[in-house]
Specification:
Helices cover 19% and strands 36% of the residues. The chain is α+β, with helices and mostly antiparallel strands. Strand 6 and strand 7 form a beta hairpin.
């Protein structure tokens, strides 16, 4: 008897779930069609202070599904990053132009360039030892 009630209840719930529809909701793509190209595309830099030149780049933007990061130092292949993630790259000391290409769900792209300045710290507590070479010092 319990099994019959369970099966009967399941069939009723299944029938209700199948019969419930909202007119037009299946074909409503107006939200998707109203999406435009990505906006407010920027990148945040985190430069390590240990003279290694390691820079972490975290891109940010609105209506973005992926970012292509061109490092600006001659590296040909870009790093592809999803929103909320970051990429790391080692730079030599200097000024670089980082290019960020943001892609939306519809495939529209927005390109932004940002300047990156990498400067390493000067050596601290440097101890220099000078030794005199008798052959050279007599010249």
């Amino acid at each position: 008897m319990k099994n019959i009630k369970f099966i009967f209840g399941f069939v009723i719930l299944l029938a209700l779930a199948i019969s419930c529809t909202v007119d037009g909701i299946d074909d409503d793509t107006s939200l998707f069609n109203s999406l435009g190209a990505p906006t407010n595309v920027t990148a945040f830099y985190n430069i390590t202070q240990d003279n290694s030149g390691l820079v972490t780049i975290t891109p940010n933007g609105e209506s973005v599904v992926s970012f292509d990061i061109y490092y600006g130092d001659g590296t040909l292949t870009p790093a592809t990053v999803v929103p909320g993630k970051s990429t790391s790259h080692i730079y030599a000391e200097g000024t670089y132009t980082v290019k960020i290409i943001a892609t939306s769900v519809k495939g529209l792209k927005t390109e932004v360039t940002q300047s990156l300045v990498v400067s390493l710290k000067a050596p601290e507590n440097l101890v220099v030892t000078i030794s005199n070479d008798l052959l050279i010092s007599k010249k």
